[in-house]
Structure formats: structure tokens, C-alpha cells
Amino acid sequence: FTRPFVSEITILQRERSPDIPQSLWLIGCLVVLVCTLAMIAGITWGGGRINRSEPTASEAEFQPSAQS
């Protein structure tokens, strides 16, 4: 079984149609970029909130502790 060499785009991007305008491809890529950046920003924001909610070493000294 042998197969002739073809362009990578033909194999890897079979669903990509040549009759679709390039502007639509650009808009799609930009939407994915914006969603990715929003997700990264949300994760960093949430991590920052968690980090601020934990007491630091100086605050932990002044917190009352349960003694038995």
C-alpha cells in the first residue's frame, strides 16, 4: 500500500473549504484568541483571590488558636 505525497493542508485541514472568505477565517481565529485570553485572565483572577484569602505569616500570629 503506497500513497502519493500531497500537501499537508490537504491532509490536516480537510474540512477547510477554499470558497470561504479569508476574513471569516481571521474572525474565527480572533474569537478563539479572545476566549483563550479571557479564560487565562479568569484563572489568574481567581488564583489571586484565593491567594489573598489565606492568612500570611504576620496575620497568622495574631489569630486566636484553639488550645486543648
Describe the structure using short key phrases:
68 residues, 0% strand, 3 helices, mainly alpha
Q: Beta-strand level of the residues, as a percent range? A: under 5%
| Morphology | elongated
Count of DSSP H/I helices: 3
Point out poorly predicted stretches: none
- Summarize the amount of helix as a percent range: 55-70%
H/E order of the elements? HHH
Number of beta-strand segments = 0
User: Quick one: biggest sheet?
Assistant: none
CA-based gyration radius: 26 Å
How confident overall, as mean pLDDT? 84
Task: Describe the structure in your own words.
The chain has 68 residues and is an all-alpha fold. 63% of the residues lie in helices and 0% in strands. The protein has three helices and no strands. The radius of gyration is 26 Å and the shape is elongated.
Nutshell version of this structure?
The protein has 68 residues and is mostly helical. It has helices at residues 8-12, 22-53, 57-62. The mean pLDDT is 84.
SSE arrangement:
Blueprint: H1 8-12, H2 22-53, H3 57-62
